[in-house]
Amino acid sequence: MKSFNFEIAVWAPYPSNEQLKDGYYQRVASIDGLIKDRKRLYIGLYFKKYFFPKYRRKDNLSEIHANIIYILFSWIYCLIFCKKIYFHSVIEATKGFPIIFFKQTFIDLHGVVPEEMRFVKRFFLANVFEFVEFFVLKRAHKIISVTNSLKYAIQSKYPNLKNNVFIVLPIFPSGFDENSDDNFDDRDGFIYAGGTQPWQNVDKILRFSSTIDEFNGYLLVGSKDRLYSSYYKEFGEIFERWTIDSVSPSEIPKYYKMVKFGFLIRDESIVNRVACPTKLVEYIKYGVVPVMAFNELGDFMQNGLKFFDINDFDLNRAQAQYKEFATKNLEVYFKFEDAYRSGARSLRDSIEN
Description:
Elements lengths: L5 E6 L11 H12 L5 E7 L7 E5 L2 E7 L3 H11 E7 L1 H6 L8 E5 L4 H7 L3 H17 L2 E4 L2 H10 L8 E3 L21 E5 L7 H8 L7 E5 L2 H16 L2 E4 L6 H5 L4 E4 L5 H4 L4 H8 L3 E4 L15 E2 L5 H38 L1
Parallel strand pairs: 1-2, 1-5, 2-4, 5-6, 6-7, 7-8, 9-10, 9-12, 10-11, 12-13, 13-14
Antiparallel strand pairs: 3-4
């Protein structure tokens, strides 16, 4: 029976190489790196596929991909064979809701899911997730927060939560080389590396690029087909100004090391105020100074982030200030690195004890 037992069940799909282009799965992979010596089971439940479950096992890692119709089986299996439970977001906690009353539970918030649902006007789901959020936070052994800003927002919402139940663990990219880059010479141009969802404001980035003479930029997206289907009709001519590609996460640093400026255009919202965008961590690690609209993202400004405002961007001024800003942002990165190491130690200790 020992082969059926697991030290921890992680409610999230174990990420494929293709999925690692997405920030959510980068977080899953990053946390997995902290528990890879544990015997662990990843549970991925889906609504539209895996009607015939798939199971894979390698060393300490097991993963199951199944349709939501197998949810009752998943509950029973966790209750019998899994010692601890780790939920990646309130969404996953909703799928495994009954388990929180019987097992030691860790909840990785990633963000504010009920507020995200209200932001996109999905009010029924917002209420469901808020119901689950209330109970899972109340029952959690540890609450893992990607930023202090998120921690404070949750504490404001649920004042009875004790401070020592929180672990602040910033999102760090998995699979990147360990060394940051302080070589700021022989660089030029811009980059955007990310998704094409509406909230990424790719249209604003493309419009901005048309205002820069002799623009030089790399547009690295998860799906070139989705980019073209969404934006080519309106911005086809502007595409000619960009080098467009879709690459694996491990290839992205070489592009970062060639440019000076990187786009991160988010709108003002509670969702963005508490976020820890992986892209922004990557930018400042590799000497890319962000070009932003809304800048109060997570804990970056409190730690001294330097950026350029897209609405007041002057290329000559930006070129003159680039090295100063990149150098100061590298110091910000090291603060996040220290916070990550501290949070990682706390999480490992909590899981082992």
